[in-house]
Amino acid sequence: xxxxxxxxxxxxxxxxxxxxxxxxxxxxxxxxxxxxxxxxxxxxxxxxxxxxxxxxxxxxxxxxxxxxxxxxxxxxxxxxxxxxxxxxxxxxxxxxxxxxxxxxxxxxxxxxxxxxxxxxxxxxxxxxxxxxxxxxxxxxxxxxxxxxxxxxxxxxxxxxxxxxxxxxxxxxxxxxxxxxxxxxxxxxxxxxxxxxxxxxxxxxxxxxxxxxxxxxxxxxxxxxxxxxxxxxxxxxxxxxxxxxxxxxxxxxxxxxxxxxxxxxxxxxxxxxxxxxxxxxxxxxxxxxxxxxxxxxxxxxxxxxxxxxxxxxxxxxxxxxxxxxxxxxxxxxxxxxxxxxxxxxxxx
Length: 347
Ligand code: ZN
Description:
By secondary structure, the protein is α/β, with parallel strands linked by helices. It has two domains: 2-149 and 311-344, Medium-chain alcohol dehydrogenases, catalytic domain (Quinone Oxidoreductase, Chain A, domain 1, Alpha-Beta Complex), CATH 3.90.180.10; 156-289, NAD(P)-binding Rossmann-like Domain (Rossmann fold). The chain is built from eleven helices and 20 strands. Helix 5 (178-189) links the parallel strand 13 and strand 14 (194-199). The N and C termini lie close together (11 Å). Zinc ion binds at residues 40, 42, 65-66, 151-152.
């Protein structure tokens, strides 16, 4: 019964880690045996930096929040799930009575408890107890690997929803990491005719170009604004999704935006992003921000099942649980061409 524990910055261990919270199963909870867990940029950031913004790792913490598994026990009031069901889980549990939750925006509830965000433990461990309301049954044709992609995919779907994509819109996604690519897939599924994806990693852009109507732009040698304006008769893109978190990438974000365009900020930033409000004004641009997602998991599962979105090409590497420290070392080295790495728990 080992867990992957971040002891402190740059120190991971696989060891027994009893968690009392797991022992009690509430009436509306299920106990889940974990199957597949994706490695997220945030997990890697906690490992390499010991924290992110206001969230600092002050005590040993289990990592991981992108997960699928199997229900092994169900509370007495659970009607939607039963033992043996294959599921994926939404990692943030809000206070059901908070003002934000009652407004329908439970993702911005300040009291939300989110896996692997200090001080809440993640799920790179054998089992977890979770509310049935945040646990979603998988159709037979959605694999555990795909299901562990629902969490990052939910960010892209939430962003496309915020952008109010209209059929035939042309979009730009800045950044070809996992979030950039799930956002591009979500924008296409929402009706975009084409999506430009910009990055400096040729291997990631090559992968992106195979995902559908995606036009890769390597900003290390191509001028993004020139490329986009030339391809759109000088009009620009209707939507920009900023998924790089890079202040430099975002600096000239309005130069490629059409009149009445929308910009959605998704990538978390190491440094403050500044932009030219005047350029936003003359376009009457709408600027949106997303923080995780709300009410999106069932939509993601439905799209994976129907084939509207295929995340399988984004899963570039899988590690056994015993090898998970190595998996994190590999992820921290930011290898070129790797998009999503996953860890398989022993079954
Ligand atoms: Zn994640």
